[in-house]
Amino acid sequence: MNFPRLHPDTIEEVKEKIDIYDIVSDYVVLKKRGQNHVGLCPFHQEKTPSFTVNQSKQMYYCFGCGAAGNGIKFLMEIGQQSFSQVVLELANRYQVPLKTLEPEKRQEVQKELSLKEQLYEIVAVTSNFFEHALRETLGENALNYLIEKRKLQPETIQKFNLGYAPSGWETLYRYLVEQKRYPIALVEEAGLIKPRKKGNGYYDTFRDRLMIPIKDIQGRVIAFGGRSLTDDEPKYLNSPETPLFNKGKTLFALDQAKSSIRSFDKVIVVEGYFDAIALHSAGITNTVASLGTAFSESQLKQLLRYSDSKGVIFNFDADQAGIKATERAIKEIESLIYSGQVNLKILNIPDGKDADEFINSHDNGSEQYQELIEKAPLWLNWKIEQILMEKNLKQADNFEQVAQGMVKLLNQLSDSNQRSYYISYCAEILAQGDARLLTLYLKNLQTQLSKPLTKLSQKNTTKTFIKLENTAENNLLKEAETILLKIYIHYPEHRQEIFDKLEDKNLIFSLSEHRIIWQKLLDIDDEYDQKLVSKLEADIANLSEVSEKVNKLLNFREIEQYEDSSRLSLIIDAALISLEKVNLEKYCNYCEKKYKTINPEEDPVNYQYYLNEYISSRQKILQLQPLRSFSQLDIYS
Fold it and tell me: What letter does residue 51 receive in the DSSP assignment?
C-alpha cells in the first residue's frame, strides 16, 4: 500500500508511547549494565557486546559500528522499512489513534489496520462461545475431565478461559456466520472453519474438543489449542497460522506469566498447555509453554526481556521424546547459549513424569517442584550427563565416545572462562577420581581443542590460551596486561579504546587472574559509572586467587603523572604490541613443534595446516618488529 503523510500529532503520540527496550529486545538479548542495557549489535558481527540501549534517553548506540538512533530508527534499519510504515505499525501496536495530512486516505489506511481488529473480535466471540458451551449439558464431559482428571479448580478454569467445542460439524459456523453475521472469509482467515473438500460449504476446525485459548502478550485471544476427548488424532490440534497467530513466535500463558518472570527473575518453559496450567494453579506462575513446535530464538528473546539475569529453565518430559525435544530446543537457540547470553538450566523430573503429573501426584507437589527447580543443572552439565548416559568409562570404546563428545561440546564454547572451567570439569570426570590422571586428561583435552579437524577449522587460533614457559616472556606479558588493566580502571575515557583495540586485534588476557578481573570489569562497567572501583572491590573480595592482584591494581601509582591522553594512548598501543608479539611467538613455537612431529604422508592436511600457521605467525612477528613494543617504552620517565 502507499503510505500517507502522517499528522505530527500521531507521530508525537507514537514517540511518547513506545519503549525502546521493548522494541529492541524483540531482536537483541539485552543485559542490564549500570544505567544501560547491552547486547550484541544486530547491525554488524561481534562476539563481545558493544550495543547499548538507554531507556531514560530512549536511544541506542553501538560503540563498534556507530549505529545510533531511537526506537523508530531501529525498526527502520532492522526491517528496511520506511518511516511512515514503522510509525503505522507502532500506532497499531500501541493503539494510537491515526491522523493523516490527507483525510481522503485515512479511511483506506484504517480499513487495512481494522482487518486485524475484526479478526480479534471474531476470535474473542468464539472464545466466549466455547466457554459458554463448557457449562452447558453438551460440555459436561469436558468439564468433568478438567475437574476430575486434571484436578483444576473453577477459578483456574475461568482464569484460562477454558471451553468446549461442540461435536457438530457446523455448530460454530452457524453461530458466527448465520447468527452473528460475520463474513465467511474472515471466519476462515481466523482459522475457525475450513472449506469442504467435496462440494460447497464449510465445517468447523475444532469439534468435540476441550478448548484452550492462546493469547498474545496483551492478553487478547489470537488462536486456540484443542485437546481431543476421545481417541481421535491428533490428541492436540492448534489453530493454523493466521494474521494474528504465528506458532513459532507465540508462547502460551506469557501474558499471565510476565510479571512473575520479572519478580522471580527467571522463567520455566514446559511442553504442554496443561503443564503450564497446573503450575500456575499451584502458584508457580512464572511458567510458559511452547506450542508443539521447536522452541525458537524468537520465543527466547521474548522471554529474556523480562529477566535481568536471563534465567531460563527448560522442563520438558524426561522420556526419550522429551530429551530429544530439549536437544532440539538447545540447537535452535545455540548461538545465544554458547555465547553465554542465557543462563539456561534443564530440569528433567524423576520417573519420567511431566510437570502436570508431578504436581498432581504429590500432596506437597508445589514445594517439591520448587526444590527440583533450585537443583536443576546448568545446560552444559545436563549435556555432559547425556554424553555419559549408559556409558561405562572402564570400557575403552565407551571412554572414547565420551571423550569425543566432550571435545565436540567444549569446542563450541566461545567464553574463555566458561571453557576453562568445563575443561577441568570434564578432565575430572575422565580421571574417575585418580588424581594422577587428572593432569594428563587436562592436557589431552586442551590439545584436542587446539587441534584443527579440517584444513579450514580453528581460524581463531591466536585467541587460544597457551601456557607460558619462558620467564622473560611471562614477565613482559604480565607487565603489559597489568598496565592495560590499570589504565582501564583509573582512566574511564580510555576504556572504550582498550576494549575496541583488544577486540580488533583478537586478543585476550592470557594470565588467568587477569582474565577473571577483565570479565568482572566487563560485567560491572558502564561508561558513566563512577563506582567501578568500589564495585570491583566488592565483587572480587571473595576470590582469594585474584583479590591481592586487584588490590595492587587499585593502589595505582606508576602512571598517575601521565594525564596527557596521547601519552596514555601510546602506552596502550605499546602494551598491545607486547601482548600480540608474545602470543604470536608462543603460537609460532607451538605450530613449529606440531608440524615437525607430523608425518606429511600420513596426515597431509594437519601437516600443511600447522606449517602454514607457523609461516604466517612468523611473518606477523616480523611485521611487528619495527613497532615500538611495551618493553622499549619507558613509561616511568
Answer: E
For 116-165, the three-class secondary structure string (H helix, E strand, C coil) is HHHHHHHHHHHHHHHHHHHCCHHHHHHHHHHHHHCCCCHHHHHHCCCEEE
Rg of the chain's alpha carbons, rounded to an integer? 30
- Give the C-alpha separation, 23 to 136, whole Å: 43
What confidence tens digit (pLDDT) does each residue in 101-147 have? 666 666 666 665 578 888 999 999 999 999 999 999 999 999 999 99
Locate 421 and state its grid cell. 572451567
Asked, for residue 173, whether it belongs to a domain, the answer is: yes
163-172, 363-372, 572-581, range with greatest mean pLDDT: 163-172
Evaluate whether 585 touches 622 at the Cβ level (below 8 Å).
no
In a domain, 305, yes or no: yes
On whether both 437 and 496 belong to a single domain, the answer is no
Provide the CATH number for the domain around residue 16.
3.90.580.10
Residue 488 shares a structural domain with residue 632: yes
pLDDT value, residue 126: 96
For the chain, give the mean pLDDT: 81
- How far, in Å, are 133, 180, 182, 291 from residue 213 at the CA level? 14, 20, 20, 12
- State whether 239 and 255 are in the same domain: no
467 within domain boundaries: no
Q: List helix spans (H) across 333-395.
A: 334-337, 355-360, 365-375, 379-388
457 pLDDT exceeds 50? no
* C-beta separation of 426 from 384 below 8 A: yes
Write down the residue that cell numbers 620467564 correspond to: 471
Question: Is residue 310 domain-shared with residue 297, that is, in the same domain?
Answer: yes
Co-location of 486 and 629 in the same domain: yes
Residue 296 has pLDDT above 80, yes or no: yes
In a domain, 271, yes or no: yes
Cα angle value 158/160/162 (rounded, 5°): 75
Q: Which range has the worst mean pLDDT, 22-31, 410-419, 464-473, 475-484?
A: 464-473
Is the model's pLDDT at 545 over the cut of 80? no
Expressed as residue numbers, the domain containing 429 is 385-448
Cβ proximity of 579 and 508 under 8 Å: no
Of the spans 60-69, 235-244, 407-416, which averages the highest pLDDT? Answer: 235-244
Q: Mean pLDDT, to the nearest integer, of 327-333?
A: 89
State the pairing for strand pair 236-238/163-165.
Answer: unpaired
Shared domain check, 117 and 91 = no
Instruction: State how many domains the chain has.
Output: 5
For residue 136, the cross-strand partners are none
